[in-house]
């Protein structure tokens, strides 16, 4: 098995007697043990009259087995063991995964293994979980991704299983004339869930031998029916479905054009990755690229190549473009340019040096790959077991073994006008059909002879060119030797008026990578909503101006980001460190030579308006979260406020605004990773010159937060324009001490599974049900939320109040062992070591922002958690959370389906947001 030299884990591949494929991973430092099992069964296997069956079965397996019959017991166990779990149903796979503290792994596997040998399919649970599947379907009825996916299903070959409805609802999963769905569910399970169709990955600090013994104990008796799974013989598209123009109406305001080409599966070529090579050239964003030319003509905003659905007998290759209004009027010209570029690639773009460049980048990524979380690791490896030869399971994603020009030409031949489906997603087009399930309006028409003639015979365009040799590919890949003191936390090595520099050489991960954060605080940037919007506009315009010249750096394994926040803006660089100064220089030069091109300004303004208006179509619970943070943090206004300001901003306001912003700056920089101190200081000089930092006396911007204090219950209604209702209750801590953080975090941890079990699984109030820990500006906060297709806010509020009233009793009934296990589970999560350099950088950066100069707040919180008693927690629930005495903010929206029901009337309404925000400090 080919393993990265930077990977200390040990692997063992085996096949059990029942033909279950297994990969064992020993990771001595894993903070948690994790398992994933995938079975080659998905919605393609649903009976035609029981669509959604595979998905329904995935839900049901969690709800009780012979040995562990209690519904919801698996979740409780996982939560108390400091873990998490989930599952998903795809087209041809269903995958289950969980992680827990290592000491609980054996018991976790005992419970998990039962899913595949002895599920109960409890009758009452079958009835209730049908509702959950139906809620999940209804939750997404207004989700554009699902709405468009349905049209995709209806416009391919109707005989291909891709055309089936994958989610299921109350009509597809109902009991019919003496045929309860439960009987069919059991029959489906028994005929499809066979060990020879499964793969399993176990990962943990346990030895390989110990992991192997778990495999034999808990999975060797999964039955193998040995029923050969029939191959799919129908093609995804036939001549009837190609050379078609499909128009679809979205709910959100988008203008997206996708050129889609179907081809047979290319999975057997994973070692050569021919489509990655083609996508790399088509999706290039540098000078002379397809994206660059179409953008300069004002036709598109973004371009992406190489996406598309794939399966055992098909692979779609897509090129997607987000159009400007002008682009919408010139679709044929855009498609012509795409075919010109495809022609250019097949004539001049097939070069071995280009292949080797891409290969070198992947090889570096593999050689210096960093750890991911145990749960993420098992989730992708379990899929690799199906797709790659055993020796390539780890390396398969990174392999590019040989340049094969005939194969590239063969695949490029599929990218032809006759094999294309052109899909336009935009409002206000002509539609003559309505898609099933999601009611999406759409239309299909054949390409005209004129279009086909034009696209088949393209001339080359002098504007288009292929990418040059990439100057950012790193050569020096050995990390710098460690300097004395490298193991210490970050040090403040410059503390000047208006400029602070924190530095740390990374001593543990030993990869040639680094991270640079530059936080630029400017009171002017955030002192009014209008200035906040101008700041965000400037950020987008700068990113836009940088993109073309910085794109090669991204290809070479470096990334950069610029984002606005409550104090100003932050610039972040990450990836291979050797060429980061070169990238920083480029960014700063663009920054200094800033220009505000009116046409680009109009496009970016229109894009931002569209994104913010589209947020009003988000699911209700997302809208409540946005409105909550917007009301509590004046420097982070909600979308309606941003939209109102943006509508009237003009380009000529920006130059003066930026000057004013840069007249009063405070900069905090953190340079971390494979950096020597002298290089960090040199980079700091670059920054100070660019931002003209000389003895400035500006401190950081204030980040105000509304303090709730003793307000009782306040409520605020949001109009969500959705059938579902939603409610969110927020409790805020007055203090920011480690003890308060411990109390609020533990409360969320203790409540989460009981809340989910009670209000979703038992009462079936909706699919989106949960609790969350939401710290705002260092103040801990607890949130309880529900989005419901069946109940209005008044009922949801009652249900939550009943839950919080009874929760103190739930805590009293825990055994001492359960209480300790829950606490230890949370402590294990909080003290978990950083997985990789990027995660550690982020933790240090948050500490710098939180004024935790000792970098030990985590330890302080853990210390407080150790000391918290059950009595402390019960007191917190009774005094702070119980509805009668609590100070809380309740956000809610009354769904269209419940407009005739009584509105929510608890507490007092917030009469004026402006008055409310005067309490911010």
From TrEMBL:
One GO cellular component, as annotated: cytoplasm
Domain annotation Peptidase M16 C-terminal: ranges: 182-360
Superkingdom per UniProt: Bacteria
SUPFAM superfamilies per the UniProt record, alphabetical: LuxS/MPP-like metallohydrolase
Residue ranges constituting the Peptidase M16 N-terminal domain according to the UniProt record: 21-158
Enzyme class: hydrolase
Keyword Metal-binding: yes
Stretches assigned to the Peptidase M16 middle/third domain: 366-640
The keyword Chaperone belongs to this UniProt entry's keyword annotation: no
Protein's job: Endopeptidase that degrades small peptides of less than 7 kDa, such as glucagon and insulin.
Protein name: Protease 3
Protein species of origin: Photobacterium proteolyticum
Upper lineage: Bacteria, Pseudomonadati, Pseudomonadota, Gammaproteobacteria, Vibrionales
């Amino acid at each position: 098995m080919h393993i990265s030299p930077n990977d200390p884990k040990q692997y063992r591949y085996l096949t059990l007697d029942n033909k279950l494929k297994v990969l064992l991973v020993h990771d001595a430092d894993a903070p948690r043990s994790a398992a994933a099992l995938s079975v080659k069964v998905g919605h393609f296997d649903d009976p035609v009259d029981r669509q959604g069956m595979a998905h329904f079965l995935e839900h049901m397996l969690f709800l009780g087995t012979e040995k562990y019959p209690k519904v919801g017991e698996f979740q409780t166990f996982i939560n108390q063991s400091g873990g998490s779990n989930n599952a998903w149903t795809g087209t041809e796979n269903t995958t289950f995964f969980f992680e827990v503290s290592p000491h609980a792994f054996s018991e976790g596997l005992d419970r998990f293994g039962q899913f595949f040998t002895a599920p109960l399919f409890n009758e009452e649970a079958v009835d209730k979980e049908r509702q959950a599947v139906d809620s999940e379907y209804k939750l997404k009825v207004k989700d554009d991704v699902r709405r468009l996916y349905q049209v995709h299903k209806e416009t391919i070959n109707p005989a291909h299983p891709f055309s089936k409805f994958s989610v299921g609802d109350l009509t597809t999963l109902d009991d019919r004339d003496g045929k309860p769905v439960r009987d069919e569910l059991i029959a489906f399970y028994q005929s499809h869930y066979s060990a020879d169709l499964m793969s399993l990955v176990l990962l943990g600090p346990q030895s390989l031998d110990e992991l192997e013994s778990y495999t034999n104990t808990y999975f060797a008796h999964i039955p193998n029916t040995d029923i050969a799974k029939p191959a799919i013989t129908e093609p995804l598209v036939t001549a009837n479905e190609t050379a078609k123009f499909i128009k679809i109406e979205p709910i959100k305001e988008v203008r997206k054009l996708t050129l889609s080409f179907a081809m047979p599966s290319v999975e057997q070529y994973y070692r050569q990755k021919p489509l990655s090579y083609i996508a790399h050239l088509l999706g290039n964003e540098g000078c002379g690229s397809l994206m660059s030319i179409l953008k300069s003509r004002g036709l598109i905003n973004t371009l992406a190549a190489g996406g598309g659905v794939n399966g055992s007998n098909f692979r779609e290759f897509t090129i997607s473009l987000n159009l400007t209004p002008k682009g919408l009027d010139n679709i044929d010209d855009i498609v012509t340019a795409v075919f010109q570029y495809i022609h250019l690639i097949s004539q001049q773009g097939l070069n071995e040096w280009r292949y080797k460049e891409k290969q070198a980048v992947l090889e570096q990524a593999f050689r210096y790959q960093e750890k991911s979380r145990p749960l993420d690791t098992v989730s992708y490896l379990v899929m690799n077991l199906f797709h790659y030869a055993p020796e390539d399971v780890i390396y398969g994603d990174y392999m590019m073994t040989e340049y094969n020009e005939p194969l590239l030409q063969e695949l490029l031949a599929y990218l032809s006008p006759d094999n294309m489906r052109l899909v336009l997603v935009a409002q206000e087009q002509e539609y003559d059909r309505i898609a099933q399930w999601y009611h999406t309006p759409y239309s299909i028409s054949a390409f005209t002879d004129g279009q086909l003639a034009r696209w088949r015979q393209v001339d080359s365009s002098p504007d288009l060119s292929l990418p040059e040799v990439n100057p950012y590919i790193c050569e020096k890949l050995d990390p710098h030797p460690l300097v004395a003191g490298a193991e210490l936390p970050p040090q403040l090595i410059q503390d000047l008026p208006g400029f602070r520099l924190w530095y740390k050489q990374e001593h543990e991960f030993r990869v040639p990578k680094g991270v640079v954060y530059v936080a630029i605080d400017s009171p002017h940037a955030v002192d009014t909503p209008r200035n906040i919007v101008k700041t965000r506009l400037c950020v987008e315009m700068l990113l836009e101006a940088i993109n073309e010249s910085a794109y090669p750096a991204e290809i070479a394994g470096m990334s950069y980001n610029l984002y606005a926040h409550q104090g100003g803006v932050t610039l972040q660089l990450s990836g291979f460190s050797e060429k980061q100064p070169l990238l920083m220089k480029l960014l700063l030069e663009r920054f200094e030579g800033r220009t505000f091109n009116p046409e680009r300004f109009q496009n970016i303004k229109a894009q931002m308006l569209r994104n913010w208006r589209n947020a009003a179509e988000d699911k209700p619970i997302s809208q409540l979260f946005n409105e909550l943070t917007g009301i509590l943090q004046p420097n982070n206004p909600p979308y309606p406020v941003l939209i109102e300001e943006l509508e009237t901003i003009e380009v000529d306001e920006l130059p003066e605004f930026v000057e004013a912003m840069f007249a009063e700056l405070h900069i905090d920089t953190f340079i971390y990773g494979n950096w020597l101190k002298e290089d960090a200081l040199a980079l700091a000089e670059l920054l100070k010159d660019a931002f003209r930092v000389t003895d400035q006396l500006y401190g950081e911007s204030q980040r105000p937060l509304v303090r709730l204090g003793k307000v009782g219950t306040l409520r605020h209604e949001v109009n969500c324009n959705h059938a579902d209702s939603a409610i969110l209750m927020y409790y805020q801590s007055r203090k920011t001490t480690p003890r308060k953080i411990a109390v609020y975090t533990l409360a969320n941890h203790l409540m989460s599974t009981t809340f989910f079990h009670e209000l979703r699984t038992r009462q079936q109030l909706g699919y989106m049900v949960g609790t969350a820990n939401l710290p705002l500006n260092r103040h801990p906060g607890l949130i309880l939320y529900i989005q419901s297709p069946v109940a209005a806010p008044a009922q949801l509020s009652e249900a939550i109040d009943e839950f919080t009233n009874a929760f103190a009793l739930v805590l009293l009934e825990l055994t001492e062992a359960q209480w300790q296990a829950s606490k230890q589970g949370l402590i294990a999560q909080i003290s978990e070591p950083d997985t990789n350099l990027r995660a550690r950088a982020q933790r240090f950066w948050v500490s710098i922002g939180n004024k935790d100069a000792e970098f030990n707040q985590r330890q302080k919180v853990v210390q407080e958690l150790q000391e918290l008693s059950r009595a402390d927690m019960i007191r917190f629930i009774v005094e702070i959370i119980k509805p009668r005495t609590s100070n809380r903010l309740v956000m809610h929206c009354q769904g269209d389906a419940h407009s005739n029901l009584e509105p929510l009337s608890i507490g007092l309404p917030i009469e004026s947001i402006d008055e409310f925000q005067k309490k911010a400090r």
